[in-house]
Design goal:
four-stranded antiparallel β-sheet; alpha+beta; 4 strands; 2 domains; 6 helices
Length: 196
């Protein structure tokens, strides 16, 4: 891997060719780019690789570009990294030397969302929006039910206070119950003081 100006590396030829061959299998083009994630001055200290795949003409995501609403054609970007909470960037980049051409191909063929190829294994944007709307609707119903119950309990307590209904669930007389307790140390001490 050679290093260009300001520390930006160029991809190995065999890996770049493997990305292009993999993309051509589905009728598209693929290029490999290095994206800096941490700089010191004007020098690249850390970065990750990105596979940029072109989209087919019949892809829904191309509609805005075909209608002239977007300046550039959209691409599908696959980042060659994985989440890492210890890293300052939040991700641990894969090195192309460690992955090699076959490792990059295996990463692209994964069906999970971390490989960026989760279009079949993950939910569509419309499905995610529908789920969010349903979740918000359910949360609203739960909040209304909780507010109604809280209001009912508050009105019940206010009614009891206005009508001077005791708040104790069991109808007992507090002074009689306290006097009946013979093992109370306070009453026992006062009775002994009286006898002395």
């Amino acid at each position: 891997m050679t290093v260009r100006l300001m520390g930006l590396p160029t991809p190995p030829v065999e890996v770049a060719d493997e990305v292009e061959l993999w993309a051509r299998e589905s009728g598209r083009h693929g290029t490999l780019h290095f994206v800096p994630t941490r700089l010191v001055g004007r020098r690249v200290v850390e970065g990750t690789w990105l596979v940029r795949l072109s989209l087919r003409d019949n892809d829904k995501r191309m509609q805005a570009y075909q209608q002239g609403l977007a300046a550039e054609p959209p691409t599908e970007d696959v980042w060659l990294h994985e989440p890492d909470p210890v890293s300052p960037t939040g991700y641990r980049p894969y090195t192309l030397g460690d992955l090699g051409a076959s490792g990059v191909r295996q990463f692209l063929e994964k069906g999970n969302t971390w490989s960026g190829r989760g279009q079949f294994g993950s939910k569509t944007l419309e499905g995610l929006a529908r789920e969010a709307i349903d979740k918000n609707r359910n949360a609203g119903q739960v909040a209304r039910t909780a507010a109604r119950e809280e209001c009912r309990l508050k009105l019940r307590d206010e009614r009891r206070w206005r009508l001077k209904i005791p708040f104790l669930n069991v109808g007992i007389s507090i002074p009689r119950a306290a006097a009946a307790a013979s093992n109370d140390p306070v009453t026992a001490a006062t009775s002994q003081e009286k006898t002395l």
